[in-house]
């Protein structure tokens, strides 16, 4: 019985001692607990930061992909418009992409990603879904250089779609202007008339849109009128083009002259000078300088 009393006393003593020491134990253990809690907090924060960064990267990538998809949609739409361009029934055509633009303000030329390896040849006509761009003047195996119709050495035989008057549209080195000289004062030509390729010269098939007349004027006492025309193609925004293989049955049956192309050097001539002289003798000329006429005139 005495042993039972001692056991109870010891048990009570331990109880009160542990109760009294508990705050001390808690206090002693608090640094480790606090450290563990802070460490866990940092780990959670780092995990959240890492997760947020990962999500941000994924979102950025997805946005970039979305932009690319939108760009591809626009490109596909543009390609569809190009491929739906009304061409002569049996004409062979090929899509090209502009690789480079000549930064010289006096040379209006572009480089296309198609060359002799794709069948490109010097003199090959180049168009967009809006109208005539120009012609190939040099080519290597993988690329070719295109002389734009607005270049100051370019001349294109054209015809007034309404009155059938023939002329030669010449570039003057300005994006929104073509010059056609020596149109008779009494010639049937009006603002808004559309000029298309006439087929003369054997380079450009007949009927492709070239420009819209924006002004008819000049000195009333002069023999010739001064006519201004704006190209239908926006040369600042060309990316895709169509390159055409010309066949004899597409050309005007009465075409005997070679395409007139003004040239600074013999190496830049596309056709012989004698052919140019003959063409100039038979064709009228016109002379535009600047134009704000909207390109939609052709569609009107």
From TrEMBL:
Any Pfam family the entry gives: MreC
UniProt keyword annotations, A-Z: Cell shape
Domain of life: Bacteria
Protein's GO biological process: regulation of cell shape
Family matches, as InterPro entries: Cell/Rod_1, Cell/Rod_MreC_2, MreC, MreC_beta-barrel_core
Domain Rod shape-determining protein MreC beta-barrel core: 98-245
GO cellular component: plasma membrane
Family: Belongs to the MreC family.
Protein's job: Involved in formation and maintenance of cell shape.
Annotated PANTHER family: CELL SHAPE-DETERMINING PROTEIN MREC
Protein's UniProt name: Cell shape-determining protein MreC
Organism: Succinatimonas hippei (strain DSM 22608 / JCM 16073 / KCTC 15190 / YIT 12066)
């Amino acid at each position: 019985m005495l042993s039972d009393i001692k056991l109870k006393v010891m048990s009570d003593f331990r109880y009160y001692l542990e109760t009294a020491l508990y705050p001390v134990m808690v206090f002693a253990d608090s640094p480790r607990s606090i450290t563990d809690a802070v460490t866990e907090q940092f780990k959670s924060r780092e995990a959240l930061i890492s997760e947020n960064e990962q999500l941000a990267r994924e979102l950025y990538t997805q946005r970039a992909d979305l932009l690319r998809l939108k760009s591809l949609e626009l490109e596909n739409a543009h390609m569809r418009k190009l491929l739906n361009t009304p061409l002569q029934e049996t004409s062979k055509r090929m899509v090209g992409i502009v690789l480079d633009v000549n930064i010289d303000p006096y040379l209006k030329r572009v480089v296309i990603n198609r060359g002799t390896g794709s069948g490109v040849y010097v003199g090959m006509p180049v168009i967009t879904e809006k109208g005539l761009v120009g012609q190939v003047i040099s080519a290597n195996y993988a690329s070719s250089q295109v002389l734009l119709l607005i270049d100051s050495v370019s001349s294109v035989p054209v015809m007034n779609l309404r009155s059938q008057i023939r002329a030669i549209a010449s570039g003057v080195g300005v994006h929104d202007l073509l010059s056609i000289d020596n149109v008779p004062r009494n010639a049937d030509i009006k603002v808004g008339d559309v000029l298309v390729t006439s087929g003369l010269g054997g380079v450009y098939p007949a009927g492709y849109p070239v420009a819209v007349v924006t002004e008819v004027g000049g000195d009333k006492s002069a023999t010739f009128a001064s006519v201004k025309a704006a190209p239908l193609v926006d040369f600042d925004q060309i990316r895709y083009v169509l390159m055409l293989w010309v066949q004899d049955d597409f050309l005007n049956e009465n075409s005997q002259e070679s395409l007139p192309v003004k040239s600074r050097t013999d190496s830049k001539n596309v056709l012989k000078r004698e052919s140019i002289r003959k063409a100039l003798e038979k064709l009228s000329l016109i002379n535009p300088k600047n134009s704000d006429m909207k390109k939609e005139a052709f569609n009107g």
